[in-house]
Amino acid sequence: MDIGIDKIGFYSPNVYVDMEKLAEARDVEPAKYTIGIGQERMAIAPLHQDSVSLAANAALSILDEDDKEKIDFVLFGSESGVDHSKSGAVWVHQLTGINKEARSVELKQACYGATAGIKMAMGHIALNPESKVLVLGTDIAKYGVKTGGEPTQGAGAVAMVLSSNPRLLSLDNDSAALTKDISDFWRPLYSDYAFVDGKFSNQAYLDFLNDVWVNYQEKTGRTLKDFEAMTFHVPYTKMGKKAILAMTENEEESERDRLMEYYQSSIYYNKQVGNIYTGSLYLSLLSLLEQGPELEAGSRIGLFSYGSGAVGEFFSGTLKADYKNYLSKDKHESLLNERRELSISEYEEMLQQSLPKDGADIEIESEDMKEGTVYLTGVKEHIRQYVKK
Questions:
Q1: For the chain, how are helix, strand and coil distributed in percent, rounded to 5?
Q2: Pick from 128, 130, 209, 344: most CB atoms within 10 A?
Q3: What angle, 0 to 180 degrees and rounded to 10, lies between the N-to-C axes of helices 280-291 and 329-337?
Q4: Cα dist. 175→119, 214, 228, 250 in Å?
Q5: The pTM is what?
């Protein structure tokens, strides 16, 4: 059965920080941020945007009434969940108006959560060919002011509708996965910020990529020549370049150059948004599809997903004919271009805002709530309050 991605879209908050200005404020050479890690702008989530509202906004940007009727599974991948019990998927289900008979579940494994959702969706559709599944990757990467991870923050969500006979990308059932219990990045329940061993995490990412790529080749008999382009989980965009260099170390220079050319198209959106954890790989895929040249039907795209802790997976898909007709390039470019730049002082103040931790009620008001469709407007009697315009 032909199963894959029928629709894809993303949403990011309407405020950002310029990375050159952040570097100057931190007495760092700007090239360390713009070239060294490969970031240009960094989306910041105001208090009225959390993982639920970001996901709902992303979903509403692509769903039509037929989708809402046929979607019977909502899978919410995130490491920025807002409740230990209730899934973010339940809120998104209500805010988007999806049919009441749908199942709604939250998935967590660092940046791998949305990929787990895709694998579950494929199995569900194989058993229920008329079904559609909404898969969400939504996160807020937040490390704090003047921390080592500060330039690799970000915020946003990617929404995908999976179905049989998709119009964008058919997914192959040929993946290779790996799980190891390591401590390269983690966030205890008591901490607002993650702990990370940056050097170890980078190496773990590349080690996992090598292991699953070797396993994938053994399973399928495919080589790099079978792929038109590769997309990667990119916590910062320079990581994708490191991945290609690792994969092509023993390949012809022409192979590396070809993949590097597509890599530039695949990081366009990520460079403007920053790290969105579970959505990062799929924002890169979307960037390739919208910002890259139109590829021939049947072109194979490789996808590498990595979630610290750690789980990695390599899988692939083939492009459908006329896939460009079903994308929203202009809308996504407008979303990014119409954002408001924060001064460094505004950014620092916004980053340190948080909801009360003592159970107190709060009402949220902000001029920036003029954009988007769904907002968190406060907390009342310990229950988050969302509004859909």
A1: 40, 25, 35
A2: 209
A3: 120
A4: 10, 11, 17, 22
A5: 0.97
Quickly tell me which residue has 């713009």 as its tokens.
Answer: 34
Return d(Cα 301, Cα 170) in angstroms, integer: 10
For residue 327, how many other CB atoms are within 10 A of its CB?
A: 17
Give the residue numbers annotated as catalytic, written as ranges.
79, 111, 233
Written as six digits, the tokens of 314 are 């390599």
Cα(11)–Cα(29) distance, rounded to whole angstroms? 30
**Token pair in block for residue 284:** 């890169």
CA dihedral 41, 46, 52, 53 (to 10 degrees): -90
The DSSP result for 5-62, as a single string, is EEEEEEE--SEEEEHHHHHHHTT--THIIIIIS--SEEE---TT--HHHHHHHHHHTT
Pairing type for strands 374-380 and 71-77 reads unpaired
Token readout for 82 is 């807002």
SS (H, E, C) 300-340: EEEEEEEECCCEEEEEEEEECCCHHHHCCHHHHHHHHHCCE
* CA distance linking residue 281 with residue 305, whole number of Å: 7
β 103-107/71-77 pair status: parallel
The CA distance from 60 to 55, in Å, is: 9
- Cα 47 to Cα 35, 51, 352, 362: the distances in Å are 30, 11, 10, 11
**269 Cβ contact list (under 8 Å, min separation 6):** 10, 283, 284, 286, 287, 290, 291, 332, 336
Digit-coded pLDDT (tens) for 235-244: 999 999 999 9
Of 162, 123, 109, 158, which is closest to residue 306 (Cα–Cα)? 109
Q: Say whether domain 3-388 belongs to CATH 3.40.47.10.
A: yes
Reading the block at residue 63, the tokens are 């769903």
pLDDT, one tens digit per residue, over 140-170 is: 999 999 999 999 999 999 999 999 999 999 9
